[in-house]
Design a protein that fits this description.
The protein is mainly α. The protein is built from four helices and no strands. Helix 3 (about 45-75) packs antiparallel against helix 4. The longest helix is centred in the C-terminal third of the chain and has 50 residues, at about 80-130. The radius of gyration is 28 Å and the shape is elongated.
Length: about 130
């Protein structure tokens, strides 16, 4: 039979295990997260909250209008109609896709804002009752 290895004492621990014990992973995780505004209570302006979906919607509308123009050119011009007929619907679909993605993104952000407000309220209630 084999004898199981003895567990190392405190003085015999490897340097890696000492780093794991003394590391402060919880705070570094919070600091390195992408949604740092969850941890800070600074109010954000409407533009800071909604600027990405507004840009996506604007670009989507511009590409959709460009696709409309290209598609209508295929009806009126007699030269290179194959190129217009192929690229026009592609721009139409790309613009429509970006437009829909941006319009769906806005209610998602609103829902997250409401959840964040509820969470902050519950955290304040919890700290009020448990810190006495």
């Amino acid at each position: 039979m084999e004898i199981p290895p003895k567990s190392p004492d405190e003085s015999e621990k490897s340097p890696q295990s000492k780093e794991l014990i003394t590391s402060n992973t919880g705070s570094t995780l919070c600091m390195s997260s992408r949604s740092e505004s969850v941890w800070t209570s600074t109010p954000r302006s409407k533009w800071d909250i909604y600027h990405k979906p507004i840009i996506v919607v604007s670009v989507g509308v511009a590409i959709f209008l460009f696709g409309t123009v290209i598609t209508s050119l295929s009806c009126f011009l007699t030269e290179n109609t194959n190129a217009y007929k192929m690229s026009g619907p592609a721009f139409l679909s790309l613009g429509l896709m970006l437009l829909v993605c941006g319009l769906v993104w806005i209610p998602i952000i609103r829902k997250k804002q409401k959840q964040r407000q509820k969470s902050q309220f519950l955290q304040s209630l919890k700290s009020f009752f448990f810190n006495r």
